[in-house]
Amino acid sequence: MKCPVCNLEMVVLEFNSVEIDYCHECFGVWLDSGELALLLDNQTKYQRLADSFAFQKKVKETPRKCPICRKKMDKVACGSRQNIVIDKCRGDHGFWFDKRELYDLLEDSFDSESSELKEFLKNIFKIKN
Ligand SMILES: [Zn+2]
Ligand SMILES: [Zn+2]
User: Fold this and answer.
1) 0.85 exceeded by the pTM?
2) Residue 13's pLDDT band (boundaries 50, 70, 90)?
3) 72 C-alpha vs ligand 1 centroid, how far in Å?
4) pLDDT of 71-123, one tens digit each?
5) Among 83, 89, 101, 77, which Cα is nearest to 26's?
6) In angstroms, what is the span from residue 106 Cα to ligand 1's centroid?
């Protein structure tokens, strides 16, 4: 699968047997539909996140194309203050997170609660404490 930002081949990382497509160039992350729920491994948490998602009509951020269907994705604001803007395929293929966005979203939504997933993301995004 190619990165929607750099157009370079992404690598597949695995976390608890969930596949995460990751770009070494821009540190972006692609999650297929359903993988976000699998990653969180908790329906309540996933629901909390999903409930915060709000479709944005006007966003300055460059539109990105879905790496699967190549169609322009929607911008979706999420997080407690809807301050994190991610890209979602209109055909529901999945979500694109720019560098750190996935980590920031978890941090924002689940406070400083530490988790294996956050440690894993910190590692791939090279976030230092
Ligand atoms: Zn990239
Ligand atoms: Zn798509």
Assistant:
1) yes
2) very high
3) 16
4) 999 999 998 888 899 999 999 999 999 999 999 999 998 876 778 999 999 99
5) 101
6) 21
Among 49, 67, 61, smallest CA distance to 104 is for 49
Whole-angstrom distance, CA of residue 108 vs CA of residue 8? 30
Average pLDDT, the chain: 92
Going from the Cα of 28 to the center of ligand 1, the distance in angstroms, rounded, reads 6
Instruction: Please report which ligand is nearest the Cα atom of 94.
Output: 2
Cβ pair 65, 82 in contact under 8 A: no
Please tell me the distance between residue 17's alpha carbon and the centre of ligand 2 in angstroms. Answer: 22
How is residue 7 written in tokens?
């157009």
- Show contacts of 83-91: CB within 8 Å, 24+ apart: 83/108, 84/108, 85/56, 85/59, 85/61, 87/4, 87/63, 88/53, 89/33, 90/66, 91/66
Q: Ligand 2 centre from 104 Cα, in Å?
A: 24
